[in-house]
Each structure stands twice: as structure tokens, then as C-alpha cells.
């Protein structure tokens, strides 16, 4: 009898635990009604995020309001929100390169010990340079294979070889041929309305041009060298400016957006654009059947390398938002079911193990096989002077002024010298 009573008590206790736990089913949380906000720059927006969020809401009850901000407004708005404490619950930005402008060590939740951290493919890339902490859930394991992405069909119609140009003059001659074809096709779609796209040429070109002089970066960081004292930087700006001076871009480049540039290339109105590998999946998703190829920009005539990113896109959790629930949401977001949805739409290199990256576009795989896996790369300029990331948007505006004929390449570097020096002094960086 005593044994029977004890058994009943154990059963009752078990049922009590189940009810106390909110009626959880095995392996499945009870749905919650949690609403979160996620702030993201327009250039980083992917339509599949809506599908992922809908699936998560259906499965768990967590819902997210996406605040998609124009690229040129994102940084100042983010800084204002961080200063006032009226922050979104989640912020999409680059990790770790944007840790500085986010002041991540003080404003963001440390995610180093979250469950998904054990599944990271490339954890060392994510660690904050100062604290070694991880402040964001990554999307990819590696990112930014920049260069020329071109429409194969346009090249074929114009009789242009897809062989990689070996010199700058070779590349210019291709652009000139497209312009002179009489077909009205834009050689290079330029989207200076979204000023962040103007940096692609220089953030790739500067480090390639000084690849044999790596000491340049430490000297710039310690005030032993001015940007205007590096002749290779002026050469890169001269070459970039040449494309505009010869009319090898769209005439409305100052009002042309990033999305407009993708559409122009995908539909054959333009032959190519300068950007990162993400444009390929974007175009293939919206314009099925488009075939895109890749060229390394021949910045110099004798050094066959590319510049690549030392960052990935990621999701940060501000401490002053609904941090507890936002952290839980990211753990759900990290699960293979939802991550697979992302890479089904945008095949690539997942940041988490156990995720199907899909079939990577051939031209992107070509970049990885030719340059990344063979070690034929340096890191982009932004990575080399990561400390200056908060003021880089101002430099991009100088590039726009250069293409508009307001500043010369030399004046761009002089203006940047002043801004950079003042900023580094304000941070009390050694040597300034």
C-alpha cells in the first residue's frame, strides 16, 4: 500500500511539473506572445527575412518588426538611438568591424556563451579585438569577395571575351568597347545615391596597391604617415575617377541606387557593377535565369590578388532593449530550420555548422577557389583601419564629390587626412 501511495505521489508530482512548465511538449516550447524590433540597413535587407520571421512566429509566437533604414541614414540614426537609449531590440551590422562604432563592449549583450556559439564555423573572426567577446550572431562564416560582377549574356551579345583582364588598360578597353557598341548598354552601373557602394573600389584597391608594403597600415595608425603621402592611394583614386571622366558609368549615377544598379545589370541595361558576392544571389533570386560572372579588378598590372573582408554580417542585441527576449529570439533564429531558409534563397557559406549552405553560384565559388583557398588575398582597407569605421561614411561622401568633379583625387586624400587625424586625436590614439 505504501508503495502504491508513493507511486501516486510521484505521478502527481510529474504532472505538476508539466503544468508548472507551461505545458511544454517534448522538444517544443509553448508559444509565447513576444514582439521585438530589428533595425537593418536597406542594403542588407533580404526578402527571405520576412519568411523566416513568419515561420518563427508560427512555431514559437515570437514576432519581429523590421525597421529597414536607408543606408545613408542608418549610421546617424543608430548613433542617436544608442545615445538616447531608445534602441531597437536587435541591430543588424557587421561584426567585428562595426563593434567600434556600436561601442559594443559597453552597449551590446555578450553572446559568447549562447548555445549557438558551439556551432560557429569561424569563431575567431567574430571576436572583439579588445575583449575577445562575441557580440553578434553571424550570418556567414566569411564575407565580401568584391570585384566586378557582370552579365554573361550581355558580354556574349557584344562579343566580349570573359577572360580576366590582366591590366588596368585591358579593363578600360572593355568598358570603352561596351560604350561604343551603339547598343546603349551602360558599361558600369554606378549607384552613388547609396554612398556606401562608392567605397568598394577603394577599400579593395588601396590594400592591393600596397600589398608589398604592409608597413603602411601601422604607420597610418600611429601618425607616422599621411594618407596623401601614399602614391599608390592616389593612383587608385585616379583610376576610379577615370571611369567617371570617360563617361563609362550611367549618366544619372548620383541619383542611382544600389537596387537600381542590380536591376540594370540583371536586365542587361548595364554590363557590370562593382560590389560584393551578395549581389549575385540577390539578382538570381529576383531575375531567375540571369547568369553572372566575376572579374577581379586589375588595380595594378603585376599583382594577382584580391582584397577580402575580415568581417561578416550579424545580429547584435542592445542592452537597453528587450535584451532577454531578443537573446532567446536569436537562439531560435540560429536553428537549422530557419537558417536553411536563408541559404536556400541566398546560397553561401553559413556561419553555423549543421546548416545547408545550398549550391553557391559558380562565379562566387570561382573567387573562393582561385583566391581565398590559395591564399592570394589581403584584407580590405576598412579592416586595416577598423578603429576609424565610425567616420568612413564621410570618406564615401568625398568619393561622390570626386566623381561629381567637386574634388580631385589629391583633394580627397587631403580632406580625409584632416578628418582622420582629428578623429584619431579625439580618441587619443598613440601618435596623434
Description:
Helices cover 45% and strands 12% of the residues. The chain is built from 19 helices and eleven strands. The strands form three sheets. A five-stranded mixed sheet has the order 2-1-3-10-4. A four-stranded mixed sheet has the order 6-7-5-8. A two-stranded parallel ribbon has the order 9-11. It is globular and about 65 Å long.
Per-chain topology:
Elements (H helix, E strand, L loop, with lengths): L1 H19 L13 E8 L6 H13 L1 E8 L1 H14 L5 E6 L3 H4 L1 H4 L15 H4 L9 E3 L8 E5 H7 L9 H12 L6 E3 L11 H10 L5 H7 L9 H15 L12 H9 L3 E6 L2 H9 L5 E4 L10 E3 L3 E5 L6 H11 L2 H10 L16 H11 L4 E3 L1 H4 L7 H12 L5 H18 L6
Parallel strand pairs: 1-2, 1-3, 6-7, 9-11
Antiparallel strand pairs: 3-10, 4-10, 5-7, 5-8
Helix pairs in contact: 2-15, 9-11, 18-19
What is the gist of this entry?
This protein is an alpha/beta fold and 432 residues long.
Amino acid at each position: 500500500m505504501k508503495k502504491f501511495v508513493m507511486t501516486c505521489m510521484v505521478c502527481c508530482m510529474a504532472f505538476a511539473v508539466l503544468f508548472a512548465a507551461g505545458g511544454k511538449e517534448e522538444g517544443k516550447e509553448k508559444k509565447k506572445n513576444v514582439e521585438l524590433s530589428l533595425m537593418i540597413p536597406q542594403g542588407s535587407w533580404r526578402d527571405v527575412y520576412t519568411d523566416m520571421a513568419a515561420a518563427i512566429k508560427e512555431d514559437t509566437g515570437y514576432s519581429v518588426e523590421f525597421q529597414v533604414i536607408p543606408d545613408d541614414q542608418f549610421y546617424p540614426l543608430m548613433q542617436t538611438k544608442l545615445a538616447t537609449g531608445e534602441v531597437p531590440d536587435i541591430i543588424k551590422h557587421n561584426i567585428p568591424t562595426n563593434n567600434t562604432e556600436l561601442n559594443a563592449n559597453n552597449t551590446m549583450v555578450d553572446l559568447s556563451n549562447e548555445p549557438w556559439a558551439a556551432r560557429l564555423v569561424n569563431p575567431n573572426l567574430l571576436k572583439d579585438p579588445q575583449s575577445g567577446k562575441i557580440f553578434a550572431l553571424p550570418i556567414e562564416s566569411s564575407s565580401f569577395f568584391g570585384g566586378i560582377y557582370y552579365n554573361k549574356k550581355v558580354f556574349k551579345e557584344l562579343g566580349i571575351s570573359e577572360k580576366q583582364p590582366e591590366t588596368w588598360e585591358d579593363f578600360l578597353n572593355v568598358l570603352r568597347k561596351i560604350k561604343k557598341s551603339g547598343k546603349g548598354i551602360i558599361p558600369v552601373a554606378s549607384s552613388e545615391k547609396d554612398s556606401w557602394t562608392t567605397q568598394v573600389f577603394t577599400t579593395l584597391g588601396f590594400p592591393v596597391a600596397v600589398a608589398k608594403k604592409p608597413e603602411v597600415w601601422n604607420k597610418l595608425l600611429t601618425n607616422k604617415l599621411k594618407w596623401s603621402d601614399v602614391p599608390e592611394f592616389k593612383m587608385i583614386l585616379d583610376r576610379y575617377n577615370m571611369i567617371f571622366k570617360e563617361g563609362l558609368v550611367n549618366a544619372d549615377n548620383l541619383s542611382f541606387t544600389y537596387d537600381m544598379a542590380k536591376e540594370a545589370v540583371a536586365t542587361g541595361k548595364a554590363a557590370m557593377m562593382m560590389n560584393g558576392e551578395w549581389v549575385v544571389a540577390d539578382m538570381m533570386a529576383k531575375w531567375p535565369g540571369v547568369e553572372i560572372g566575376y572579374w577581379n579588378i586589375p588595380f595594378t598590372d603585376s599583382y594577382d590578388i584580391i582584397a577580402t573582408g575580415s568581417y561578416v554580417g550579424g545580429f547584435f542585441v542592445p542592452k537597453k532593449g528587450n535584451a532577454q527576449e531578443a537573446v532567446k529570439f536569436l537562439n531560435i533564429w540560429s536553428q537549422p530550420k530557419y537558417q536553411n531558409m536563408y541559404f536556400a534563397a541566398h546560397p553561401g557559406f553559413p556561419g553555423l555548422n549543421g546548416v545547408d549552405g545550398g549550391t553557391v553560384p559558380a562565379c562566387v565559388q570561382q573567387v573562393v577557389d582561385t583566391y581565398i583557398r590559395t591564399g592570394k588575398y589581403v584584407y580590405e582597407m576598412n579592416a586595416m583601419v577598423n578603429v576609424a569605421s565610425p567616420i568612413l561614411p564621410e570618406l564615401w561622401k568625398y568619393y561622390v564629390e570626386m566623381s561629381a568633379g567637386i574634388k580631385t583625387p589629391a583633394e580627397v586624400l587631403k580632406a580625409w587626412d584632416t578628418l582622420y587625424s582629428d578623429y584619431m586625436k579625439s580618441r587619443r590614439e598613440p601618435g596623434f
